[in-house]
Structures are given as structure tokens and as C-alpha cells.
Write a structure and sequence with these properties.
Blueprint: H1 2-24, E1 34-39, E2 43-49, E3 56-62, E4 65-70, E5 74-80, E6 84-88, E7 102-106, E8 109-113, E9 115-121, H2 126-133, H3 137-156, H4 170-185, E10 190-197, H5 205-254, H6 258-275
Length: 303
């Protein structure tokens, strides 16, 4: 009986431990602090240790699926594994509800432009990216992309005129800006695939008027040059024709002789024969066949 009584405290201790353990487990069977995150298709996860001796970015990336982690000491950063498209526009119904257009200097003045770009993350280097910038993809787009894009435009547009970026040098400028961005992020696996203007860059109204006047003057000069070339071509054609006619006349005059004259006569006779209808002329000779009358009155035979 005393042995049974001695076992009661032990049973109570075990029961208390079981109660504590059961209390420390949630109703769904998960230990508090444990979190789950779903990584959708087309994305990868990066686990970051927030505390402890192993704090920092973990080496391995996490593929699509559910990820269990310690919500107290760990964080999962999700990165896209596909091309990202970004429009920085002044319009509030395109890209962002705020004005995200880019302003940069060119030719001593300022230009404002709506920019479209595309880029992607090399998932093998997202550890290097996050370790350097400590930004997730959305933070990267909202801060670094915008600021570095503006810096590259200011750098590459130096020395250009306002009309250059809306004319023949626009493609060259955009290619230079794209190369500038890739050089800035090449070490962390971010590659910019394309950059373009969504619409015509916007200048101050005075600059716009100057550009329009200069463009019209250039177009008029081009038209005048074209007209001059047409006139020169026509003059050269007329000169060539006159020279050809003169040469033909000279050659014809140098070949005139009795034999050629007789040949021309025979050719004319042949043409007349070909046109003859087979009827002889009623009158022949060089004098017109009209009768003549003597105005004096005729005398009688008796006189």
C-alpha cells in the first residue's frame, strides 16, 4: 500500500509534464514559432537566419513548394525566377499610382520621360544580391532600379543635344543606359534585358519650340536640296539630249551626197506607191485645169 502511495507523486509528475508538452503544442500539431511559407511556381526562396552564431543568408535556395521555418529567428525572402517588367510613368493609371517618371539632364536642360524596362535575377546569385543590398525584389525595384536608372541616364546623355534623344541617337542612348545598369549589377546576378521610352520625352515648352523650328528648317533644307538635285538632273538630261541631237545632225550632214539624195527619192516614191489606191489622176501637169474664156465678143463667120 505504501508502494502504491509512493507511485502517485511520480504519476502526477509525468502527467504534469505531459500536460505542459500538450500545452506547448498548438491545436494543429505545430510547435509555436514554427511558420510555413508557400513558394509559388516561377519563384525561389532564400532563407535568412536572423539571430545566433549562424545568422546571415543561407547558402542554398529553396524551390517551389511549402517551406517550414522558425518564424522567430528565420525569414524567407522570395525572388522571381522569371523576367520582371517595370514601367516608370507619370500616368497614375499605368505602372504605379504615383509619378515614377525619370528626369535627367541633357544639353543644359532637363528632360522628363516615361521609361519601360525588363530585368531578371540569376537565382544562383541571389545570395550575393541579398547579402550586398539587403533588399527584397519589391524594395529593389522601388529604390535601386529607379535611382541607378536616373544616374545612368544623366551619365550617358551628357554631351547630347535635346533633339538627339528624339532623333537618330535615341537608340544609341538607350543601349548605353542598358549597358551602364548591367555593369552596376553584374556582380550580384541582376541583368537588364531591355530599356525603352514609353512615349516621347518631355521638354520645357521653350525647348520644344526651338526643336520644332530647327526640325522644320532642316526639313525645308532637305526639300530644297532634293529640288536642286531634280533640277540638276533635268538640266543634265536636256544637255545630253541636245548633244545627242547635235551629234546626229553632224553625222547626217557629213554623209549627204548624190547617192544618199537619190536613195531618199526612191524611198519617197516607194511610200507614194504604197499609198496609191489604183486610180489615175483626172488631171496631170503643172498648170491647174481650169478653162479660160476670151472676154471679147465672138464675131460671126460672115464678118
Amino acid at each position: 500500500m505504501m508502494m502504491k502511495n509512493a507511485q502517485i507523486p511520480n504519476l502526477l509528475g509525468l502527467t504534469g509534464c505531459a500536460i505542459l508538452v500538450s500545452m506547448s503544442i498548438s491545436s494543429c500539431g505545430v510547435i509555436p514559432g514554427t511558420s510555413v511559407k508557400r513558394i509559388p511556381p516561377g519563384y525561389v526562396g532564400l532563407k535568412v537566419q536572423m539571430y545566433g552564431s549562424n545568422r546571415g543568408v543561407q547558402n542554398a535556395t529553396i524551390s517551389t513548394g511549402k517551406v517550414w521555418y522558425n518564424g522567430y529567428s528565420e525569414e524567407i525572402i522570395v525572388f522571381p525566377d522569371h523576367v520582371q517588367y517595370y514601367i516608370l510613368s507619370a500616368a497614375r493609371d499605368e505602372g504605379s499610382p504615383i509619378d515614377e517618371s525619370i528626369s535627367f539632364g541633357v544639353g543644359g536642360t532637363s528632360v522628363n520621360a516615361d521609361i519601360s524596362l525588363s530585368y531578371f535575377f540569376n537565382t544562383n546569385q541571389i545570395k550575393d544580391f541579398y547579402g550586398k543590398y539587403l533588399k527584397d525584389p519589391d524594395e529593389f525595384k522601388a529604390t535601386l532600379v529607379r535611382s541607378e536608372l536616373r544616374n545612368c541616364f544623366n551619365q550617358e546623355a551628357a554631351g547630347l543635344r535635346p533633339e538627339d534623344i528624339v532623333g537618330t541617337k535615341q537608340r544609341e542612348l538607350l543601349t548605353s543606359v542598358q549597358n551602364c545598369l548591367n555593369q552596376k549589377f553584374v556582380g550580384v546576378g541582376v541583368e537588364f534585358d531591355s530599356i525603352g521610352f514609353v512615349s516621347k520625352p518631355r521638354f520645357d515648352s521653350a525647348i520644344e519650340a526651338q526643336m520644332t523650328a530647327r526640325f522644320q528648317a532642316e526639313q525645308q533644307a532637305i526639300a530644297a536640296q532634293a529640288q536642286l538635285q531634280v533640277a540638276q538632273a533635268e538640266a543634265e538630261r536636256q544637255l545630253a539630249k541636245a548633244q545627242a541631237d547635235a551629234e546626229a545632225a553632224r553625222i547626217g550632214a557629213s554623209t549627204v551626197n548624190p547617192m544618199t539624195i537619190r536613195l531618199r527619192e526612191l524611198e519617197l516614191q516607194e511610200k507614194m506607191i504604197q499609198k496609191w489606191n489604183g486610180v489615175l489622176p483626172l488631171y496631170q501637169g503643172g498648170v491647174a485645169p481650169f478653162p479660160s474664156f476670151d472676154p471679147k465678143p465672138a464675131t460671126s463667120a460672115n464678118n
